[in-house]
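User: Quick one: structure for sequence A, then sequence B.

Assistant: Sequence A:
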Amino acid sequence: MAGYYMKEMTVPIPDDRRVVIRREKTVEYEIDRNRSEDKGDTRVTRRVIGKVDPVNPGRMFPNEMYFQLFPENEVPEEVRDEFLRGCEIKRRMQEIRRSPEEIVDRVINGLNELRDDGRNVGDGSESGGFPVAPRAPFGCSVNNLSYILLRRLFDDIYYSVEELAGKYPNEVIVPFKVKQINEVLEEIRKNVDDEGILPYLRLIEEPGITEENGSTIIKGLTYSDVLLMMKWYKVLPR
């Protein structure tokens, strides 16, 4: 749980004797202390709860463990939930890397669920376990598809692209991935009523395939380009 830290905002480092700061960077919190009767020593168990903010040493970037140990905090609920959801997806991405087609299957199955009128599910049992909200977010509509399920699919794709952009920022995204991404983006655009933001919600331009010196060359947007375009969708209200 120490691997993912919130980037959007910081929290105060707990004023508690159980807090230990390692090398002025990592914040650890004591969760258990046991005395060994055989050796006479004390064994302390600590967990990382954050990373010190170099700009403001009295504050830190929290991780998942922080929210478990300190449920009462100053982070807005929607920001916390978005962060925890992102951590869950990133962990799943680590497993999906061993089988890349799994993420494609998830998206295809989710789109099929939506086309089968997934908007009418109430408890998430028909939508792959994802709950469906009874109301639309501000500026959005649910008269076409289940918006919440749609955003779940988008989250899976977004964090997958984010990871690929971090590893291969200048690599051109392959056409098949573009088609899958655009299917989800197009459905999200249908649910947005605010015409002022629609021009910024663009679909991904499909790469072109050419032959040069006997080799097949793909020319188009890179993973980092696509990530920038998808950020407009990510900030839409939920």
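Sequence B:
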Amino acid sequence: MKVAQKKLFVKCWKAEYQATVKVHQLQERSDAAYRYGRPTARLENSLNVWTKKQSAACEPLIELIQSGLIGEDATVLCDELLGDLGGYVADCYHCMWQDFKPENAA
């Protein structure tokens, strides 16, 4: 795995994690607003925006996985760069790898 690919891998997962945290926060606020009969439209719009960001964050990695440029061991190779996100990424990436591994691209 090249250094540029490692950096892209880490950048994508950090963006995905940030979006996931924001989605959870917005969902909690939206649920609370709904329970108390407060307006939720603005929260739901923000939630939709962040959900799209969450989905799009790792899209650049799919092509790299399918072409074989990023392997199943990417989380191990990037562990030092991922820092505290290593475990989270390892869990999420395994499913992503299973869905898009080169054998599935054919």
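DSSP finds seven helices and no strands in the chain. The radius of gyration is 16 Å.

User: Thanks, that's what I needed.
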